[in-house]
């Protein structure tokens, strides 16, 4: 077995993602510098430098702590959205889930109205189900509006739950027939015990409790004042209609607004120093101190191993596996502290030169960057995966000094790292010098780099689109040029090293073939009909902390899909519609008001069908019933979030796309496929159904209905008709219709009317440019054996039609330019005569076609222009039989005769 000698690349593979700082480094000098920067006079009324205790003042803008907004509650609140403490927040959330939407402000106002009223007399407990028994039922109970409301009988929703029974009538063991048990207890009266001081509680009063509470309520309530406050809280919920709920609350937290760093300072003094510096740095740059997350991190850091000396090089994998980090809050604050420390460590370790560091924090970037999930864990851009030093420096120079709006910084680093790895392997396979040094790069290295880029694939092995490869190629070429002009990185590198990606990456991913029907990205109409038939059975879950029931979100999802199908707007434009998006003109025609955010054209109007307008009106009714309790910012949107504390004012495309994907992939069976032809009986691919595909379906539906291309362009709101042409494909019906319209207006080379058959016309894609060839030998050879040597202008077998008219005119102008050049160069008279004859032939052909077109009625000319556009699009995707049928004479370089040539 022979072949090229295999060499092993001398470049180490990309290191695995580790901690920001090498664990073997001693960071004591850096921590000493942090200790010197810590201010003892920081927040004097809150920070005690002697005891290392921080006590947040409620209402301070620099601390996420306030007093609870509930009347009479003195507990701290750590959220500024609702202003409630943990206990009040838990009760408020459970209330909104059970009773429907109500803002926190309305809930608090309801409590203020109840204070000072005789509300206790309006609440009665649930009584025992045994006849003639007036005792309270066992359990914490359920408060009701009045005794006439009776039992809510919610126990039948779960078969394993017993009906309400008092302590004396409650069965001790499993009862086969609970109805017979209840009937048998009528003859066994039970004396009522001393009940809990909570009016609706069915448990006995605990003898050791001074305020008359049961064993369970005594864990929640300590004083008489807390009992009154507890009753008021519960009354806010219980006095609502159908106020069934169980009374339970989270255990009250201790410590209030304090952050005690003394214990952490005693166990891990270096970690305490870093944490205090990070808190002070957070305060300096304007970020408030989060008491909850910081306290969670302190509790977790107390259990860190003694070997952990810094947050920068702490072993996150070991901490995660050992369950030391107990909560999401601890991890959140851990990342914040690490990010702040990196913003100080990197300039300190590199003396201010960021190009010397392979880890650049996001806080030090002055250009735009996208923080992906992998980079967020390190809170910095990690250049260490790039194996080549010159490529690493080139990427850092580009990202630090240039904006990366074309592609995110983290994505660019990933692609450069994978590209360099393939580049090294291919250089070794071709026995090229190692590309580790920039000075050794040659033209051959540039070719190999372009080949590696052409073979780049996704992480899952799927091929990357050629358009994206060309985008990466242009970005990498710009990086090389920028490094040459603005640094000495390629100072000793030959100028022949360049990334010639144009020769390696074609413009199109898959050249189109001459198939009868092209699929495109549009969802077939039978599939769309099937989806809307199954839409009533779709299960649409509401987002977290939603105040509206699932039926509201399902109605929003239905209206969203209807607009995608019938209006054809982009998903983001559909999700971002306003409440006043529907209007009617004087004739009653419905119009959709929308904004073209991509084209930066606002205030667009689109005529819609009456059925689409009716779907919007139906959604308006559902929406307006639940929008009154939402903040003012949500009331302007068509699809509000119905979440009082949501940052987004309306539902985003990510929410709709997630529900669409879950519904299609998890709930629906196979989608219907074609009934006949290739692939008959094969289910339609589910992954081909996505939100943007409905825009293609909208355009395809109108194109199949015969809508003129200019009208279609206006409906799609495109600037160019070429862009619109990419949204639909030409089916067999449109092809036949276009051929039928054009074939009867075919002319020969002499300008005489010479119609051709449809079968002959269909060979236009494989015959000759500017028309069809009827010569039998050339037809049999698929247009590659012309006896006239492709001089169509003087051939009697040549046929052309109005669809070729623009190309004929352009070719005629080129021939006139060639004739002028031939005369100026004093070429042979025979060549000049041939060119003039060809010009006269094409001029006569064009004149004949234009004359015949002028005689047609206006409507027929418009129909013929549409058919010609369809045929030109078909021909543009299919190569002709002759790749270069006409070579302009002006492009030939004639060598000037010299004395040596004459001799």
Topology:
Blueprint: H1 28-37, E1 47-48, E2 53-55, E3 66-67, E4 76-77, H2 86-99, H3 104-114, H4 178-184, H5 224-238, E5 258-260, H6 262-267, H7 269-284, H8 291-301, H9 316-321, H10 328-350, E6 359-361, H11 373-376, E7 380-382, H12 389-401, H13 409-429, H14 443-454, H15 466-486, H16 525-534, H17 550-567, H18 571-575, E8 582-584, E9 590-596, E10 601-607, H19 610-626, H20 653-667, H21 693-704, H22 709-716, H23 721-725, H24 732-742, E11 747-748, H25 758-761, E12 772-773, H26 776-780, E13 798-800, H27 805-824, H28 829-855, H29 858-876, H30 899-902
Antiparallel strand pairs: 1-2, 2-5, 3-4, 6-7, 8-9, 9-10, 11-13, 12-13
Helix pairs in contact: 1-7, 3-5, 7-10, 8-10, 12-15, 13-14, 17-19, 17-21, 24-29, 27-28
Protein architecture, described:
This protein is 41% helix and 5% strand. By secondary structure, the chain is mainly alpha-helical. The chain has a 3-stranded antiparallel sheet with strand order 1-2-5. A 3-stranded antiparallel sheet has the order 8-9-10, covered by helices on one side. Helix 3 (104-114) packs across helix 5 and helix 17 (550-567) runs antiparallel to helix 19 (610-626). It is extended, with a radius of gyration of 39 Å. It starts with 27 loop residues before the first helix and ends with a helix.
